[in-house]
């Protein structure tokens, strides 16, 4: 949180508006009171107030939930988030088309779980993007060619092999994350399709609970995937 606030507060501390406010308060105090000490006290008070207000505003903005933006990612990560959002939209439409009553109320509860799942898919995809970026910083084929051109006793081999091993681990983890997100997205689509189907016929309470359980399982697995990737940002 502190790292996110520092740039905003720093800019407020040195901005032309802050300087103008302080200079204006000094001039006005001198004009009204003729006291340099009073002018300095007022200037300090105005400066501190300006920075404090900027800090509070930045804190409120930083506390807001981050908007899900698939286009902030590259493929394939963008696709996974867009697919999850499409499932979320279809589910919301199914809820809207359902007559008011216990069924709609239950669907809304399930929808909250689905919304949570979309948020977790977004976070997992962000970390997947970090994996991709980290892997691309290491030129695996080039490292392999360099290794093939060295003698077995060459002291440079250990360093190149270590880099190549890191590239391999990142690639495997990236592929695992991609495969998991793809599978979970498919299961989410299937669950939403079942909800849409249930809305076209009477009954189906037991089936609805099966769908709820399916979405709940997907959300839990997305959370597990996200937790498993929490160290990606620092590693990258």
Annotation keywords:
single chain, 236 residues, mainly alpha, 2 domains, flat
**Helical/strand content category:** mainly alpha
Q: Give a count of the beta strands, DSSP E runs of length 2 or more.
A: 0
Rg, please? 28 Å
Cα end-to-end separation = 20 Å
Q: Estimate the strand proportion.
A: under 5%
Helix-strand topology string: HHHHHHHHH
Low-confidence stretches: 1-5, 61-65
Average pLDDT, to the nearest integer? 80
Helix content: over 70%
How many structural domains does the protein architecture include?
2
Tertiary shape: flat
Biggest beta-sheet profile: none
- Total number of helices: 9
Descriptive notes:
With 236 residues, the chain is mainly α. It folds into two domains: 2-63; 70-235, no CATH class. It has nine helices and no strands. It has helices spanning 2-14, 16-33, 36-63, 77-97, 102-136, 140-148, 157-198, 205-228, 232-235. Helix 1 packs antiparallel against helix 3 (36-63), helix 2 (16-33) runs antiparallel to helix 3 (36-63) and helix 4 (77-97) runs parallel beside helix 7. The protein is flat. The two termini are 20 Å apart.
Blueprint of the fold:
Layout: H1 2-14, H2 16-33, H3 36-63, H4 77-97, H5 102-136, H6 140-148, H7 157-198, H8 205-228, H9 232-235
Please summarize what this structure is.
It contains nine helices and no strands. The chain has 236 residues and is mainly α.
């Amino acid at each position: 949180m502190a790292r996110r606030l520092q740039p905003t507060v720093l800019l407020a501390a040195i901005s032309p508006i802050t300087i103008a406010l302080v200079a204006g308060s000094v001039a006005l105090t001198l004009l009204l009171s003729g006291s340099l000490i009073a002018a300095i006290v007022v200037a300090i008070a105005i400066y501190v107030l300006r920075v404090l207000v900027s800090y509070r505003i930045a804190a409120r903005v930083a506390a807001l939930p981050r908007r899900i933006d698939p286009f902030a990612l590259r493929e394939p990560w963008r696709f996974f988030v867009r697919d999850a959002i499409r499932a979320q939209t279809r589910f919301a439409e199914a809820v809207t088309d359902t007559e008011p009553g216990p069924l709609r109320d239950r669907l809304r509860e399930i929808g909250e779980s689905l919304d949570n799942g979309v948020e977790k898919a977004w976070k997992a995809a962000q970390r997947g993007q970090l994996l991709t970026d980290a892997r691309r910083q290491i030129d695996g084929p080039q490292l392999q060619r360099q290794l093939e051109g060295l003698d077995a006793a060459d002291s440079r081999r250990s360093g190149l092999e270590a880099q190549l091993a890191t590239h391999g681990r990142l690639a495997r983890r990236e592929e695992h994350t991609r495969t998991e997100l793809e599978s979970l997205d498919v299961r989410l689509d299937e669950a939403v399709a079942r909800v849409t189907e249930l809305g076209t016929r009477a009954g189906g309470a037991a089936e609805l609970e099966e769908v709820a359980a399916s979405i709940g399982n997907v959300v839990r697995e997305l959370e597990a995937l996200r937790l498993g990737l929490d160290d990606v940002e620092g590693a990258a």
